[in-house]
Amino acid sequence: MSHTILITGASGYLGGTLLAQWTQTSLPAYKRLFALVRSDEQATLVKRHFGAVAEPLQFDTKDGVAVREAVVANQISIVYFLVDAMTADAQVHFIRALAEVKQSTGLDVHFLHTSGAKIFSSHAGAPTDRPLLDTEADLYEIQKAQEAPIPLMQSAVNTNNTVIEQAESLGVHSYIFVPCIVYGRGEGFGNRISIQTVAIVRAARALRRVYSVDSGRPSWPVCHVLDNTSLYLALLRGILSSSSPNGSGNATGTQPPGSGKHGYYLASSGHVVWEDLYAAMGTRLAQRGMVDGDPTAAGAVERATDEVLGKMGAALGCPKELVALHLGGRCTFTARHGAEDLAWQPAYPANHILQTAGEEVDLILDNLSG
Ligand SMILES: NC(=O)c1ccc[n+]([C@@H]2O[C@H](COP(=O)([O-])OP(=O)(O)OC[C@H]3O[C@@H](n4cnc5c(N)ncnc54)[C@H](OP(=O)(O)O)[C@@H]3O)[C@@H](O)[C@H]2O)c1
Q1: Which atom of ligand 1 is nearest to the CA of 11?
Q2: Which of 30, 168, 186, 277 could cross-link 3 (Cys pair, CB 3.0–4.6 Å)?
Q3: Quick check: pTM over 0.70?
Q4: NAD-dependent epimerase/dehydratase domain: from which residue to which, for each copy (predicted)?
């Protein structure tokens, strides 16, 4: 009996692209793939677009009984969670259910939690005075010690820790997968656009100008959506190929990917300075008549005043204190693990996001509602 896999967030930007790429890649043998959706319409779309590889499944991730029923009944042994980086309730339901599958079938079980680079940044009290590698031996201890200046971010930090601790206590392999500024056209049937690049456009449109929200020139890791997806798949390949043909143990001689306290994977090809990204995206917004002036001119990207932050917050639907959380901050988190453990190599260098910022703006404007 080999692995049965569940992908959550199938209608989302990352999950949809993962499913789309699944159809184009070769993976070691597994038994079945399920894609979690929340409506009949989405289930139909999964069948229509990805019916060759995936079967839709519907249940409420916040309902522990429903999660247990779905995971145990289908003997799901690998869960990719791409739904919520901020709270741990659903993740704990999945981890408990996976432990039950392990007990009843003897299969090795795996839980991948999708976190986010914000949780390894200044917004969450992570160290930013040096490159913070995703392979650092004491990264778990570093996260445990983080005191986030924003309560919501403390909850997200605690979520990573809870996943690792719960999984370890129940014999489940866990992975903390960390997307950063992801960009590029999503390939799924649902959401096609990312989060942070959208915030830059929303705020700039409202103010008719791009503003910096930080002192200095802090940078942030970036990743094309196809590279983010190829790391998800490389990790899965690593999990599947280190399992024995019956899905349990490590009878293949292949080294299993690091997991638990050593299971952090940042998907990133490098860092870009926020200000350079604002200017690059602002250039297309100016060409489309949505911001005034030339955002690339010297000194054109000014620091937002308190009043401007208030207006940016209104455009983003958040208080001015949280604007920087959406489109700024300092993050020195640096990807090593994918390359070292999984031979993952991103295809797009970091400055590709600057070179294609115009296309990203066009994509966002074509897909933004309101
Ligand atoms: N995109 C990025 O740049 C980025 C960066 C860092 C971290 N992340 C994290 O990665 C995860 C996926 O991001 P994304 O960009 O793919 O987001 P997205 O496009 O908004 O997709 C979110 C997915 O989660 C599903 N979902 C939301 N609440 C759910 C619930 N209670 N039960 C079941 N499914 C639920 C959505 O279903 P519906 O379509 O039915 O709403 C959708 O499929 C998120 O946790 C996000 O914070 C993303």
Answers
A1: 43
A2: 30
A3: yes
A4: 5-237
User: Helix H segments across the chain?
Assistant: 13-22, 40-50, 64-73, 89-105, 139-145, 151-170, 196-207, 225-241, 274-287, 306-316, 323-327, 337-342, 352-355, 357-367
Q: Give the residue whose CA is nearest to atom 40 of ligand 1.
A: 38
Render 178-236 in DSSP notation, one character per residue. E--EEES---SSS--S-SHHHHHHHHHHHHTS-EE-SSS--EEEEEEHHHHHHHHHHHH
Domain 4-193+222-268+330-347 has CATH 3.40.50.300: no
Where do the domains of the chain lie? 4-193+222-268+330-347
Q: Is 11 in the pocket of ligand 1 (CB under 6 A)?
A: yes
Question: 114 CA distance to ligand 1 centroid (A)?
Answer: 9
**Arithmetic mean of pLDDT, 108-133:** 98
The DSSP symbol for 140 reads H
Query: Which secondary structure element, helix H or strand E, spans residue 271, and what is its range?
Result: strand 270-273
Ligand 1, atom 39, lies closest to the CA of 11
Per-residue pLDDT tens digits for 265-315? 999 999 999 999 999 999 999 999 999 988 888 888 899 999 999 999 999
- DSSP secondary structure letters along 350-361: TTHHHHTHHHHH
User: pLDDT digits over 163-191, tens only?
Assistant: 999 999 999 999 999 999 999 999 999 99
